[in-house]
Amino acid sequence: MANKNLSNAKNAKNDEFYTQLNDIQAEVNAYIDYDPDVFRGKTVLLPCDDPEWSNFTRFFAQNFERFGLKKLISTSYAAASKNISATKNTKSTKGKKDVSWYQPSLFEQESPQYDEEKTAVKGKIFVLDHDTNKNGRIDFEDLEWKYLEGDGDFRSEEVCKLRDEADMIVTNPPFSLFREFLAWIVGDDGKGVLTQSRRVAECAEKVKGGLAAKNAKGAKKFLVIGNMNAVSYTEIFPLIKFNKIWLGATGFANDMVFAVPKGTIVSPSDKAKAERLGYVGDYTRLGNSCWFTNLEHGRRHVPLKLMTEADNVKFSRHKDIRGKGYVKYENYPAIEVPYTDAIPADHDGVMAVPRSFLDKYCPEQFEIVGIAEGESGKELGLKAVPKELKRLNRSLRDGQLYYMRDGFPEKPFARILIRAKRPK
Length: 424
Ligand SMILES: C[S@@+](CC[C@H](N)C(=O)[O-])C[C@H]1O[C@@H](n2cnc3c(N)ncnc32)[C@H](O)[C@@H]1O
Hints:
With 424 residues, this protein is α+β, with helices and mostly antiparallel strands. It folds into 2 domains: 4-300, no CATH class; 309-420, no CATH class. Helix content is 22%, strand content 17%. It has helices spanning 21-34, 55-62, 64-67, 106-109, 157-165, 178-185, 200-213, 237-241, 268-276, 309-315, 374-380, 387-392; strands at 18-19, 43-49, 71-76, 124-128, 144-147, 168-171, 221-227, 246-247, 257-259, 283-285, 289-293, 334-336, 350-354, 366-371, 403-405, 408-410, 415-420. The strands form 4 sheets. The protein has an 8-stranded mixed beta sheet, sandwiched between helices. The protein is elongated and about 75 Å long. It starts with 17 loop residues before the first strand and ends with a strand. The relative contact order is 0.11. Mean pLDDT is 86; it is low at 1-12, 189-201 and 210-216. It binds S-adenosylmethionine. S-adenosylmethionine (SAM) binds at residues 15-19, 48-50, 54-56, 77, 82, 152-154, 171-174, 177.
């Protein structure tokens, strides 16, 4: 469903990506399969949404009774506050509010509470908790709405109050504010522990505390879409390492497609991929997008089926492993495993695997040792790269892994360090 209100947007910032119903359905069903009562009696907040047309609101409202929800709250961000304009940003338009692209929906205009003055500058709140039209069911038709006091910024006091009331937060937040949004979920209001770059261990302690203690009802549950690159953020990696958050059930290799405002410039190859998946028009695929959650799902408890080191050397489908084996790093006692399916089942030491491993990570099978990047790499004890090698390969930095190939120091692409868990 494309957002018709945005039909003339010429200059939408990267935050305007709208999630498709089947992606939401596939993901949420995995939690229901794992625990049919996961949403029972819960208040679910969908912030950064657009309740009039959002698939999140539609999906949860239509499943209100099946999921046994207590209350559904959905909030939207005011058109005038969005980073969208109908004209290209030029020196003369920069900084000026341009909402000429915005058209209130018919639904809004026909509602008794419609207000011409408020429509573009106020956020909206939609609430569903009872059968307002008395037709015997609670569903989308029973949503009640009003304008918020402010523009619906998730950091505003009124939306923070809604967050505090909610048991669960589900949304696709603005990508540019992902760190801040995650901090906000745990009650940090964007000011403290998560938004400051701190030492990993220090940050992890605070974050663990935050997730455990901020909500008297227990850790706030959430399910949000983000970018896979976020796993390396100083504030987010510790949460993954300590199993406080994990990737969602939809496999990372499954492309998610998003609707975009008409006129948004997207990568032609992503657009073509979306078209191949049947989404023709104002849609794009966003490589690297994935779900982050602290809700349990079954897929993350399925151990990877792996071959032994000897069998990988004999039979691996990867020619850089078959007949060759695994490269050892020069500055850390670990082996390089460039593919998740090439992890040797019987290796007892530390293994450096691609970030996409997290998609298959089963915490009963592996422990995460750390991330080989920057300060986190230095804290892990990765030895500094000698000056003469840095001269040979100018992209080498301290805190990164490197190995030697034909006398030349090479670094892998982003790596996570893991170790197999063995029964005691
Ligand atoms: C990635 S889009 C997703 C929209 C919707 N949740 C969906 O999945 O279809 C993020 C939305 O958050 C809105 N937004 C941007 N900054 C915001 C803020 N500070 N507070 C609340 N919403 C914001 C954007 O305008 C955009 O509509």
